[in-house]
Amino acid sequence: MYHLIINGYNVDENAQSKLDTVEEIFRIAGKELKIHKTEHAGHAREIASALTSDGEFAHLIAMGGDGTLHEVLNGIKNVENCTLGLIPLGSGNDFAESAGVPLDVKSAAETIVFRAPVAIDFIETESGLRSINAIGMGIDVDVLQRAYSGKNKGKKKYFKAFLQSLKYYKASTYRASWDGGEEREYTGIIACLGNGRQIGGGIKLFPEAEIDDGYMDLLVVDYLSRFRTLVAFIKLSMGKVNSVKEVTHVKCKSARFTPVGGDVPVQAEGEIYNNVVLHAHIVSGKLKFYLPRHV
Questions:
Q1: pLDDT average, residue stretch 197-220
Q2: In this structure, are residues 224 and 264 in contact, taking their beta carbons and an 8 Å threshold?
Q3: pTM exceeds cut of 0.85
Q4: Positions marked active-site
Q5: Are 131 and 271 in contact (CB under 8 A)?
Q6: Are 285 and 121 in contact (CB under 8 A)?
Q7: Averaging pLDDT over each range in 7-21, 68-82, 134-148, 225-239, which range is the top one?
Q8: Fewer CB within 10 Å, N side or C side of the chain?
Q9: 3-state SS string over the chain?
C-alpha cells in the first residue's frame, strides 16, 4: 500500500487532473494507492506521523511543493522504516530540481512505481527538526515572511518580497563553526545549510551539493551594501558562489550558528520556525527515496 499525501485545501481543477493521472499510473502498475488530503497547515505532518506510528514499514508519497515534502519528512517516526516519494506540485520545487525528480506528474509517478528507492541524506537539528533541501537564517527568512504576508501569488510574490527585503533588511551578527572547529563571528545577510542545490525557486546557493555524499554545504554571506547584495544574489542565482568574495562556503558534517543578541527565525524548505536553534548535522544514507536515476 502506498500512501499519497496532498494539500487537500488547495486542490483546484488542474491539481485534481494531475491527481487522476497519478491514480491511473498506479492502477496500471497494479499498485494500491490511498489518498490522504490535508485539511489545515501542519496536517501533512500529522498524517505521516499517524501512518508510521505503529512500527510497520510504510510507503509515503508527498504530492506538492517543498513545504509539503518538509512536513511529511518531519512527521515520519522512523525514516529507516519507510520509503518516501515526491510528485512535484509546487511553485518552487527546489528539492525536485536538485534531486532530478521529474516535474511532470506522469514521470514522477512512474519513477515511484517502477524504480527501487535509493538511500539519500537529510539535515537534522539537535531538536530533531529535519530538512531535506536547505535550512538557514537571514534575508531568506525575511523574504519569506514578506512574501507570505503579501497578496501576490507564484514566483512574483518572492521577487517583490526580495526587493522589499533588499531595501529594509538589516544584517545579523552570529557565531558559526563547523565540524568542531574554531568559532568565527560574522555580520551577515544569510547563513544557510544545504543538502539540495538551490532555494527560492532557483537561487543556486549550493551548485556542487549532492544529496547522497554524506556532507551538507555551509554558506555564509557576510555583510554587503544593498547594491552588492543585489549583484551577489544575481551571481548566486547563476551558481557562481565562488565569485562572491564575501561568501564562506565549505562542506561539512555538522555546523552551529548562534545568533548574537537573541534568537532569530529559521526557515527550512520555506517553513518558518521561531524557536529552533540552528545546531545541525547531516544524517547520511538513512532515507530511502524514489529517484529516476541514482544520484
A1: 92
A2: no
A3: yes
A4: 66
A5: no
A6: yes
A7: 68-82
A8: N
A9: CEEEEECHHHCCHHHHHHHHHHHHHHHHHCCCEEEEECCCCCHHHHHHHHHHCCCCCEEEEEEECHHHHHHHHHHCCCHHHEEEEEEECCCCCHHHHHHCCCCCHHHHHHHHHHCCCEEEEEEEECCCCEECCEEEEEHHHHHHHHHHHCCCCHHHHHHHHHHHHHHHCCCEEEEEEECCCCCEEEEEEEEEEECCCCECCCECCCCCCCCCCCCEEEEEEECCCHHHHHHHHHHHHCCCHHHCCCEEEEEECEEEEEECCCCCCEEECCEEECCCCCEEEEEEEEEEECCCCCC
Q: Strand 279-289 vs strand 82-88: parallel, antiparallel, or unpaired?
A: parallel
CA distances (Å), 126 to each of 94, 226, 231, 278, in order? Answer: 24, 34, 34, 8
Q: Which of 15-19, 44-48, 232-236, 290-294 has the highest mean pLDDT?
A: 44-48
Q: Which long-range contacts (CB under 8 A, 24 or more apart) does 19-22 make?
A: 19/63, 21/105, 21/106, 21/109, 22/63, 22/87, 22/105, 22/109
Cα–Cα distance between 295 and 292 in angstroms, integer?
9
Please say whether the beta carbons of 34 and 52 come within 8 A: no
